[in-house]
Amino acid sequence: MNDTIYQRIEHSAHFRELVHKRQRFAVILSLIMLVIYVGFILLIAFAPGWLGTPLHAGTSVTRGIPIGIGVIVISFVLTGVYVWRANSEFDRLNNAVIREVNAP
Questions:
Q1: Residue pLDDT, tens place only, 12-35
Q2: Are 99 and 31 in contact (CB under 8 A)?
Q3: Claim: this prediction has a pTM higher than 0.90
Q4: Which end of the chain has fewer surrounding CB within 10 Å, N or C?
């Protein structure tokens, strides 16, 4: 019986759409995060003096601190974007697959 259900899922148009959209979205978000993180690491490697420059005269806060915090914040924001889309569009497609597979 499970093999029949698995085959119905694999042949479902909604399932293929779900897999395609979810993979594409995950790749896009991963590439965005990768570019941001690698860019930050390259700044550390090739422009440490620029990152170490204080934001204002007489302060110990350098340019690197808000940029580093920004990298962390962006990772949380991208996670939130994925969760928001997963809870809306991806759940809708998942429910469509379940309805389609359970239909007589």
A1: 888 999 999 999 999 999 999 999
A2: no
A3: no
A4: C
